[in-house]
Design a protein that fits this description.
Layout (H helix, E strand, L loop, with lengths): L1 H5 L1 H4 L2 H11 L5 H24 L10
Length: 63
């Protein structure tokens, strides 16, 4: 789910971001940067845990 939300940057036409920057400056794209960037970061963290531990959010079990 997070990786699909992060893909929103490519799903939205670049003209929308350009118009937002022209109208409001960087603040116009800040919500998209925060949500999509956060989703990408969380997706990568989850993927890293899945690869390392073979289960999301798993912890190493000590004997």
């Amino acid at each position: 789910m997070n990786l699909t939300q992060a893909a929103g940057v490519v799903a939205i036409p670049p003209e929308v971001f350009q118009a937002s920057v022209e109208e409001f400056g960087f603040v116009g794209v800040l919500p998209s940067v925060v949500t999509d960037g956060g989703a990408l970061l969380l997706g990568l963290v989850l993927l890293g845990f899945l690869i390392r531990f073979r289960s999301p959010w798993a912890q190493l079990k000590t004997a």
